[in-house]
Design goal:
The chain is of the alpha/beta class. The chain is 47% helix and 12% strand. It has eleven helices and eight strands. Helix 1 crosses helix 2, helix 3 runs parallel beside helix 4 and helix 4 (83-92) runs parallel beside helix 5 (108-121). The longest helix is centred in the middle third of the chain and has 17 residues, at 139-155. The protein is globular. It binds (6S)-5,6,7,8-tetrahydrofolate (THG). (6S)-5,6,7,8-tetrahydrofolate (THG) is lined by residues 10-11, 13, 15-16, 49, 79, 102-103, 126, 128, 166, 201, 203-204, 234, 236, 238. Residues 10-11, 13, 15-16, 49, 79, 102-103, 126, 128, 166, 201, 203-204, 234, 236, 238 line the site of (6S)-5,6,7,8-tetrahydrofolate (THG).
Length: 298
């Protein structure tokens, strides 16, 4: 078995087909069934994404947390931009120390409200590299944002080992330069925050791409992130091939893509199947071929 990435399963969310209606109507069955499926698929954490939940977040987050803890022991990842809902979720959660707060961004009011809640809970925290002006533009802006978050978290007594930095994956439709600068930052992070973990919402990379093609981008992007030592990823746990990569079961494909990142170029006529897909997708994600929705057919 090769390098392992802990999977944070993304499918329980307020926008989802199966989970959204159940969450709004407070029907436990469908979301509990999904929690068992995501756990059986190998998820290490279940992301519970209630969105901004402006109206009822302080009631919805505790409901989904209690609904989950009534049926599985898998650690939870509480995902909302509503700081009151986050606080309410951590008030009721039983398995606090294993849980993840998703997320604290580099916005002063979110840091002020949530850092004390995370410190008190003793939970893990996703430090999201999103600032007062939005998305960082390059690896240097990511670096300064990560230092700011790191100092504030450490000052509150939260050690590096409890922090997962999220550089925010950018869509391939914005160009490969943005993707590669996210990877550059991941290399810098080892010196900025020794011992800290990391995470990326993989599906960000395929945002705006035709549905049936998205999984190929998400899978190869994960392999690229593995070269930088990524420790967790926010994934669709229903994609078995993606979960096999997370579980260290595709080492020869991982080795090939990592060799390509080091400048080696295998002969594509010797490749087939999923391996050839990784080859072509890496070429597109790294900007060596121009991305279009026919990249797999070339
Ligand atoms: N970083 C961090 N947290 C995050 C993200 C991130 N949380 C939200 C998001 N990005 C990750 N979560 C999702 C959840 C669902 C989907 C994508 C990302 C998604 N769902 C499909 C839908 O709703 O149409 C359904 C997929 C399916 O068929 O199951 O695409 O970047 N820290």
């Amino acid at each position: 078995m090769g390098q392992v990435v802990l999977a944070i399963a993304e499918s329980i969310n307020i926008m989802g087909n199966r989970s959204g209606g159940a969450m709004k109507a407070r029907i436990p069955g469908p979301v509990q069934e999904m929690a068992r499926e995501e756990t059986a698929a190998g998820a290490s954490y279940l992301d519970l994404n209630i969105g901004p939940a402006r109206k009822d977040g302080t009631e919805l987050m505790p409901w989904i947390v209690e609904t989950m803890e009534a049926c599985i022991d898998t650690p939870l990842c509480l995902d909302t931009t509503n700081t009151n809902a986050m606080t309410a979720g951590f008030k009721v959660i039983k398995n606090k120390k294993a849980a993840i707060m998703n997320s604290i961004s580099a916005q002063p009011e979110r840091m002020e409200k949530l850092i004390p809640v995370a410190a008190e809970a003793g939970c893990n925290v996703i430090a999201l590299l999103w600032g007062p002006d939005g998305m960082p533009r390059d690896s240097n802006e990511r670096a300064s944002m990560s230092v700011e978050l790191l100092m504030a978290l450490n000052d509150a007594g939260i050690p590096n080992e409890r922090i997962l930095f999220d550089p925010i994956g950018t869509p391939i439709t914005l160009g490969s330069d943005q993707i590669m600068s996210g990877l550059d930052f991941m290399e810098m992070l080892k010196e900025i925050a020794p011992g800290a973990g990391s995470t990326v919402g993989l599906s960000n990379v395929s945002n705006g791409v035709a549905e049936h093609l998205r999984k190929h981008l998400d899978r190869t992007y994960l392999i690229m992130l593995m070269k930088t030592g990524i420790t967790t990823a926010i994934v669709n746990s229903y994609d078995k091939e993606l979960m096999a990569i997370c579980n260290g079961q595709r080492q020869s494909d991982v080795d090939m893509v990592h060799a390509m990142m080091d400048g080696n170029n295998p002969d594509p006529s010797t490749l087939s199947g999923v391996t050839l897909e990784h080859y072509k997708t890496y070429k597109a994600l790294s900007g060596q071929t121009i991305f279009s929705e026919s990249w797999l057919e070339l």
